[in-house]
Amino acid sequence: MRVNLPITVFVVFTVFCFVVNDVQAHMHNMMKYASAMSPDMKFQLQWAYNDTGMLYFKMKCQGTGWCGVGFADSTVNTDGKNMASYDIAIGGYGSTGYLDDYWSDGRGRPAVDTEQSLTLIDANETNGYTMVDFMRPADTMQGQDLAIMNDTEVWIMYGAGPTDVTDTSTFDKHANDARQVLSMKYNLIAMAMAAAAEPTTAMGTMSMTSSVSATDSTMTESTPTTASATKCGGSHAVVPVIFVLIARFVFSS
Length: 253
Fold this sequence. Notes:
2 domains, 3 helices, seven-stranded antiparallel β-sheet, six-stranded antiparallel β-sheet, Immunoglobulin-like, globular
C-alpha cells in the first residue's frame, strides 16, 4: 500500500495540535482566578498565574464590539490617567475570534505592536457581552510590552467599542461611558497566587478576603457564539520534524 508521506505528516501534526489545544483549554478553565470589576459592572477581568511565568486572562465587556484591557506600571504612570504607557490587549468576536497587542503613549487610538505577544484562547458573545480569554508571558522580553514582575503594581484600564476591529489602525473609538481606569493599583502576580492558594468552598467558589475577589472561572455561559484560536508553535515546532523522521524510517523499511 502506497502512503502519501506529506499528507500523513500533516494529518498527524494537525491531530497533535488539536490535542495540545484541548489540554491547554482544559487547564485554563480549571485554574483559580483573581478578579476585578468596574463599579458600573460593564467590565470584568479575571487572571491567573502559573509557575512557568504565564499569565492567563479572561476579560468581559458589555457590548458586542471590541473589548480591551490595558496595564500601566504605576511607577511610570503615577495616576493611571491619559492612556500613558499602557500595554493593551484588544479582542472580540466577529466572524471569528480575534486578539491584538497594542501600546499606548497617550490619548488616542493605540498603535499595534510590531511583535505580538498575546495568544488567543477563546472568544465569544453571549447575552450582549463579549468575552475574550488569552494568555501572555508575564515578562515578554519585548520593549513594546510591560514586564509584569512579582513586585509590579499596575493600573487597569478598560475600553469597549461599538463595532468589531477589522483594521487595527482604523477601528472605532470606545464610547465615553465604555471606558474607565479602575480606582486601585493591582499586583497581578501576588493576587493571582493568593487566589490560587485560597481553599475552595462547598459552593465551588473561594473565600473573598478583599475588595478584589478570588473566584473560580465562571465568566462564560451556555451556548455562546464562540471561536477558539490557540497557537501550536514554540517548543511544539519540533514535533513535525520528529514525525517526518519517524515516517521516513517506517515507510522506507
